[in-house]
Design goal:
The protein has about 130 residues and is α/β, with parallel strands linked by helices. It has a single domain, classed as Transcription Regulator spoIIAA (2-Layer Sandwich). Helices cover about 30% and strands about 35% of the residues. β2 and β3 form a beta hairpin.
Length: about 130
């Protein structure tokens, strides 16, 4: 059950409680010049800081422009610093996601609170 929804143009972010964790599911497209007003506050707030785990699911996010990529990188860095556990799910079938999250996983490898999951990765020997 979705608790809250943030919508702006073709972007939709749903916030859902899962026990003491929060899941943010990103859907659609964001090609704005600037981050949608209120999106930072929707994600970075007292509730998200108090959650035991944050799950950021980008698998249904189809496109973001370069300005939104900067916003996403800053947001991921901020939540990883504020939360004890952040799990990011993405799909390598979407080119920008494959490139962005592979780079972030390498750049933020030192973060103890951050984990990445490619929904489309195949476990060794499973193919």
């Amino acid at each position: 059950m979705t608790d809250d929804v943030f919508e702006c143009d073709s972007l939709k972010v749903e916030r859902e409680r899962e026990g003491t964790a929060l899941r943010y599911t990103w859907r659609g497209v964001c090609d704005r010049r600037d981050a949608p007003p209120g999106l930072s506050e929707f994600i970075l707030n007292e509730e998200s800081q108090a959650a035991s785990k944050l799950r950021l699911d980008f698998t249904e996010l189809n496109f973001v422009n370069s300005r939104m990529l900067v916003f996403l990188i800053r947001t991921i860095k901020s939540v990883s610093e504020a939360s004890p556990s952040v799990h990011i799910t993405y799909t390598s079938k979407v080119l920008f996601q494959s490139n962005l999250f592979a780079a972030l996983e390498g750049a933020l490898a030192h973060s103890q609170s951050l984990t990445f999951e490619d929904r489309n990765s195949v476990a060794p020997g499973a193919a």
